[in-house]
Each structure stands twice: as C-alpha cells, then as structure tokens.
C-alpha cells in the first residue's frame, strides 16, 4: 500500500510537470512581446486546476499511509533498541505537524530507525539523506511557487512561478523513489519476535 501511495503521488507530480511544460510551450513571441493565446490560457488554467486537485488528493492519501507506516516502523525499532531513540514513538506522528521541527524531526527519527533496523549490515545513509533533502526542498520550493503564483500579475512572473513549481515536482518525484527504496529496506527489519515488518 505504501509503494502504491508513493507511486500515485509521483504520478501526480509528473502530471504537474507536464502541465508546466505545456505552459512554457504555449508562450508565443519573445521577451516583452511574449504572450499566450486566450484559448490556450483558458485551457492551461483548467489543466492547472485539475492537476492541483489531483496532487492534493494524492498527497493527503500518501501522507496518511506513510505516517502510519512510519509510526509502525518506529514502534518495531523501539522494541529492538529501546534506548536507541531520542523521542518516543508518538513523535513519529506528531513530529510531522510541529512547525519548523517538521523539517528535521522526522528525518532524525528515520535515521535512528535506519541505524537500529539495519544494525550489523553495511548500509550507507545516502538513500535516507536523498529522500529527506529532496522532500524538504520540494516543500520549500512548492511553497515559494504557490506564493509567487498568487502574486504574479504578468506572464513573466507567472512562468517563473511555474518553473519553480516544476523544480518542486521533480524533487518530490525523487523523494518518492528514494522513500520506496529505504522503506523497502526498513520493512525487512525484524520485529522483536523475529518476523519482518510489513509494508502495509
């Protein structure tokens, strides 16, 4: 279920990337003379509205599934190493909703779970670091793109906002792929009774 949710979120970001390319290709002319035909502009606005709705639905669904999985992984890792974590298992859920702390607390918990779950195995932290760097970067760029889009009054600033949004989409796709990789590894972490964790 987790992989399906991450795939759906990545697909929605790919659709948003496509919409961004369509917006750039719809521009005619150059420089100060650049413009978008009225019919294309209407079609673009409709497409962006639908893509935003799709992204919202997939992000909410993916977030719910991922956080539930994240909490279960934290519980299992805590059984293997009760003193291996700085915060209790409840923070595997709550940490995502604390302003500012949400930019580093889930990563810290994931890193501790990675260390505990893969103890004895030679496994670098790069999948985890790639996931969090791309995820956090996507959040920040997405927020900037959203604010810039609302403030854009001309075609130039609008396209700039679209470009930043495309960068956020690309990072989010990378984050989804990296999350699939490290989630698959952590899912193999044995429970306290020796059974592997589940990905559901």
Overview of this structure, please?
With 200 residues, this protein is mostly helical. Helix content is 72%, strand content 2%. The chain has 6 helices and 2 strands, in the order H-E-E-H-H-H-H-H. It has a two-stranded antiparallel ribbon. The chain is elongated, with a radius of gyration of 20 Å.
Distance between the termini: 5 Å
Strand order of the largest sheet: 1-2
Mean pLDDT: 86
User: What about the largest sheet?
Assistant: 2 strands, antiparallel
Q: Based on DSSP secondary structure assignment, what is the total number of beta strands?
A: 2
> Could you state the order of secondary-structure elements as H and E?
HEEHHHHH
Task: Work out the strand percent.
Answer: under 5%
Rg over C-alpha atoms, rounded to the nearest angstrom: 20 Å
Segments where pLDDT lies below 50 for 5+ residues? 193-200
Quaternary status: single chain
Number of helices: 6
Share of helix, binned: over 70%
Structural class: mainly alpha
Global morphology: elongated
